[in-house]
Amino acid sequence: MAAANGAGRILAGGTDLLVQMRAGVVAPGAIVDVKRIAEMTTIVEELGGFRIGAAVSAAVIGEHERLAQAWPGVVEAVNLIGSKQVQGRASAGGNLCNASPAADSGPALVAAGAMLTIQGPKGRRDLPVEKLHAGPGRTTLEPGELIVSIVLPPRPARSGDAYLRLIPRTEMDIAVVGCGVSLAFEGDVCTSARVGLGAVAPTVLLVGDAASALIGSRLEPDAIARAAAACRAACRPIDDKRGTIAYRTKIAGVLLARATAIAAQRARSH
Amino acid sequence: MSARQFKVVGTRPNRPDGADKVTGRARFGADWNMPGQLTGRVLRSPHAHAVIESIDVSRAAALPGVKAVVTAADFGEQENRIVPAGEMQVNLRDVTRNVMAREKALYHGHAVAAVAATSDAIARDALKLIDVRYRVLPHVIDVDDAMKPDAPILHDHIRTEGVEPRPTVASNVAKRIDFAKGDVGKGFAAAEVTIERRFRTAPVHQGYIEPHACLASAAEDGQVQLWTTTQGHFQVRGFCSRLLGIETSQIRVMAAEIGGGFGGKTVVYLEPLAIRLSQKAGKPVKMVMTREEVFRASGPTSGSVMRVKLGATRDGRIVAADATFAFQAGAFPGSPVGPASMCSFACYDLDNIKVEGFDVVSNRPKVAAYRAPGAPISAWAVESTIDELAQELGIDPIDLRLRNAAREGTKTHYGPVFNRIGLVECLEAAKASAHYRSPLKPGAARGVAAGFWFNVGADSSAAAHVGEDGTVTVISGNPDIGGSRAALAMMAAEELGIPYDKVRPIIADTASIGFNFVTGGSRVTFANGLAIINSVREVIGECKRRAAKLWEVEPDAVVWENGEVKPASTNVGTFEPLSLAKLAASAGKTGGPINGHSQINAQGAGPGFGVHVVDVEVDKETGIVTILRYTSVQDVGTAIHPSYVEGQMQGGAAQGIGWALNEEYIYDRNGKLDNAGFLDYRMPVASDLPMIETIMVEVPNPTHPYGVRGVGEVPIVPPMAAIGSAIARATGVRMRDLPMSPPRLSAALDAASPRLAAE
Q1: Mind listing the pLDDT tens digit for each residue in B596-651?
Q2: For residue range B167-212, what is the model confidence (pLDDT) as tens digits?
Q3: A188 and A217: one domain?
Q4: Chain B contacts to A (CB-CB under 8 A)
Q5: Residue B70 pLDDT > 60, yes or no?
Q6: DSSP-assigned states of every residue in B1-17
Q7: Which of B9, B6, B3, B4 is nearest to B490 (CA)?
Q8: Is domain B18-24+457-602 in CATH 3.30.365.10, yes or no?
Q9: Is residue A264 in a domain?
């Protein structure tokens, strides 16, 4: 990568890179395939959580039973990337590095509180996933840096997560809005919450106000309404071919309520 | 006609092209290659509307590997002359400008120049070296904007036709048409209920999976061979002959297998360019569009702005119908507003009808035919209004249609009187269907709409050749886009009285069979079927003559039965029946090969009607519509191969569902198409659809020996109004603009219920 002088690109699944090359959007000077690097292509359980190699394919993530049990929302988000065929190649790391604000993995990983392990010429560092994106198509990675793995924290009892996206069709589409919610409870009281929102701003958002509205509540309708309002307030979307400002803003609230209900249901049965 | 007992017709054998298609042997447009071929690429306008001040191709031509460059200067001017193209009419003066812009670029994606080079990469590089100087003009995209007096004018020579006195200033309204029956003024005066509504539709693309592709080889002696994906290789030959000044006998066009057309492959885009490039380069030239080019530069169907007014008595008799349809034609005149106006009220036997239509140009790709061109658009407006009338009157929507349905003897507002048609039978079948009688789940609602398409006949040539073992080849000249090969072979087998697998159908090139009109208008099984039946009857006649010769009896003393010649009666004598195999084996001794030919202009195409029933559920928070159940009912005349008829009924419904819910062209402020790909031009995916149920109603067409009616186009006519009506009944909100996409439906629901939206 260093030798490519900034013109190099990392190849994981290639489901974005090859498409962009064919469309003439990018013309990399060098392509570095990372699919043979062991720590980038394996899932390990460590410290009660999971370390997912950045190039692990969505299909492999979807088949990891304990991961799916602990983090169903993250797994369902990763399994919405592309189509069944694409999922044999596409990776969560690639999905994050493509830096689309509409990427499905983003809101779920933000809600999960995922940390990224990043390797670069100056060594290794950790970065909260919500700090990765700088804008559409842009990351905060330094030249020569790449994501090695994605770390998901341990799950306490009575915790659960969920990811929902709105697409006009039922599959093969890009999120108009994506919403990830991760909750933990003591008794009926929500003790921790994180909310990630995608496709409503230049980057995936961590919506602290929505989490605050849920924490300490029993998810009463009023708390959900305040959290939904916080999501709507956090939106800074654009009008484009995939949705209007008004629609995206409205849907952010709708998905918050629906994803929260699913996450809570999972937490109760966890 | 009498009810005939069929042996082959009505069965469901494998299609003759099936094995090749599932094993990958079938060769589609982009699968043809020749040694030494070049790759052709097109430079397209980045502007919606611009004067082309100059084009300098010298740097591109000098690039190593570039073998030819063409611009409009390589194509002669064409006369202002209308010729038929599929179900549409086109003007040659416009066709040459559409395949290669001359004075102006008229839409984002309009071809401006083309190159042929030794590799695709070199061809793409060469395009960047072509220096075009544009003077960008104000543009206009939507039909109502284009009709405004101060709209940017696309063509200075257009004076609106059909307006008296003929206007003296240029307009984007190319034509005004009207149709009338009875006296709508009197009709509305007698009405107890009158409703008037306005509607819009977005342009939608045919969405064929295979992009346009061709391979042209122009030889030094002037002969041209062309392989192309098309619905009509004779039309391709005709267009190329006229646009390039080559006699038809010097152009041989081979139709590739076709990956969908739906009307969009009845015109030419790449073919004239590939031939001219091949002539200049002295090498074969292959051209394949990208998906983006298909969207930017090939024909969608029109978007529209419409008004419908209906008057009725309280008991449900429609006493007057009045409509205005304004259709986008794209960059050149020729929208399907004519057929739309004719189809609009064709389902109904009404005394008083008035229809006015406008053909309007704007800075979009020129529209091409799309499955029942125009009819689904006017049906969206008319059938939605009929449903509102049914709600207003408190009458079941099928009953209201039965009360007013067209029947045998109904005189249409555009002229013809229907002979035997099957609309009433379709409405009755829909009403009696398990679907219509099933209870709705809570929150769901049901919509109904009817649809009509003329169906056509037209020029057809066919032949039947008996091989030396007595098996038969039937030869036709229409690309098979809907299972027509199977249907033609089945009719030949039926007529001959031999098994289906003893007949092999082929589609011949333009030099190997006589002229055929395009595959379009749902005509092939009907019209080519007639020609095939006639060819086979010639074979039968010849067989009888041969047997009579062998038996030394009069030809009318023998009969053809179950694939054999027999004496007509015992009076003739006692002879062993002669099978086709025996006759073929002795053909050399009895007069030579046994073949039949037919060339006809097929008349008497049977009009087609359909009724669709759909159940939907609406997510009122998101505006997402789920199609829960869908039934397509249609008068199919006689279903030759029922599976392929059902396939047409399902495919039309699927395309209509996409048209209803998501498909649209999205332009930015500069008139550039912003969604030129399948990701953001949202056709339905498999998981969006339930199994489309079908009910085939068979009211035989009395003018075809087997009762065939065209079936391919009717099923795209009713879906949008059926779905819109179901949504209206589910939500209380009537959508009048297509598509009824989640953001639009959500906004409409919120507007109707401000309290909910505020929460």
Answers
A1: 999 999 999 999 999 999 999 999 999 999 999 999 999 999 999 999 999 999 99
A2: 999 999 999 999 999 999 999 999 999 999 999 999 999 999 999 9
A3: yes
A4: 124, 621-624, 661-662, 666, 674-675, 679-680, 682, 684-685, 687-688, 741-743, 746-747, 750, 757, 759
A5: yes
A6: -PPPPPSSTT--PPPTT
A7: B9
A8: yes
A9: yes
A→B interface, C-beta within 8 Å:
24, 166, 168-174, 176, 225, 240-244, 246-247, 250-251, 254
Domain with residue A58: its CATH number is 3.30.465.10
Give the end of a domain, one of A152, A186, A215.
Answer: A152
Cis peptide before B739 (omega within 30 of 0): yes
Instruction: Tell me the residue type at A88.
Output: G
What residues have CB less than 8 Å from B755, skipping those under 6 apart? none
Q: Same domain, yes or no, for A106 and A164?
A: no
Q: Are residues A80 and A109 in the same domain?
A: yes
**For residue B747, what is the enclosing H or E element?**
helix B742-752
Between CA B523 and CA B516 the distance in angstroms is 11
Arithmetic mean of pLDDT, A222-235: 98
Q: What is the domain range of residue A121?
A: 35-152
Q: For B483-518, how does the pLDDT look when each residue is reduced to its tens digit (9 = 90+)?
A: 999 999 999 999 999 999 999 999 999 999 999 999
Question: How does pLDDT run across B256-291, given as a tens digit for each residue?
Answer: 999 999 999 999 999 999 999 999 999 999 999 999
Domains of chain B: which residue ranges?
18-24+457-602, 32-137+210-259+265-297, 304-455+606-758
For residue A14, being part of any structural domain is answered with no
Give the closest of A169, A240, A244 to B684, CB-based.
A169
Whether residues A147 and A193 fall in one domain = no
pLDDT band at B1; cut points 50, 70, 90: very low
* Pair of tokens at residue B711: 């079936």
Instruction: Tell how strand B111-117 and strand B66-70 pair up.
Output: antiparallel
**B159 and B169 Cβ atoms separated by less than 8 Å:** yes
Which of B120, B628, B688, B750 would best serve as a mutation to test chain A binding (most A beta carbons within 10 A)? B688
Residue A172 falls inside a structural domain: yes
Q: Most B CBs within 10 Å: which of A250, A256, A258, as the mutation test of the B interface?
A: A250
- The domain spanning residue A246 has which CATH number? 3.30.390.50
What is the interface pTM, i.e. ipTM, of the complex?
A: 0.94
Reported as type and span, the H/E element at residue B626 is: strand B624-635
Give the model's confidence band at B87: pLDDT under 50 very low, under 70 low, under 90 confident, else very high: low
DSSP state of B103: S
User: What are the structure tokens assigned to A37, written together?
Assistant: 């690097």
Q: Are A150 and A43 in contact (CB under 8 A)?
A: no
Mark whether A199 and A100 lie in a shared domain: no
| Number of structural domains chain A divides into | 2
A176 contacts in chain B (CB < 8 Å): 742-743
Topology annotation, domain B32-137+210-259+265-297? Aldehyde Oxidoreductase; domain 3 (3.90.1170)
Q: Rg of chain A over CA atoms, in angstroms? A: 18
* Average of per-residue pLDDT values in chain B: 96
Is there a common fold for B18-24+457-602 and B304-455+606-758?
Answer: yes
β-partners of residue B255 are B228
Residue A90 lies in a domain: yes
Put simply, the answer to whether A251 touches B685 (Cβ < 8 Å) is no
Residue A85 CA: distances (Å) to CA of A22, A79, A172: 19, 11, 11
**pLDDT band at residue A5, thresholds of 50, 70 and 90?**
confident
Strand intervals (E) in B331-480: 353-361, 445-453, 458-466, 472-476
How many Å lie between the alpha carbon of B213 and the closest alpha carbon of chain A? 19
Q: Among A135, A152, A169, which residue terminates a domain?
A: A152
CATH number for the region B304-455+606-758 comes to: 3.30.365.10
Instruction: Please give the C-alpha separations between residue A134 and each of A101, A104, B141, B629, in angstroms, as whole numbers.
Output: 10, 17, 36, 45
What distance in Å separates residue B294's CA from the closest CA in chain A? 15
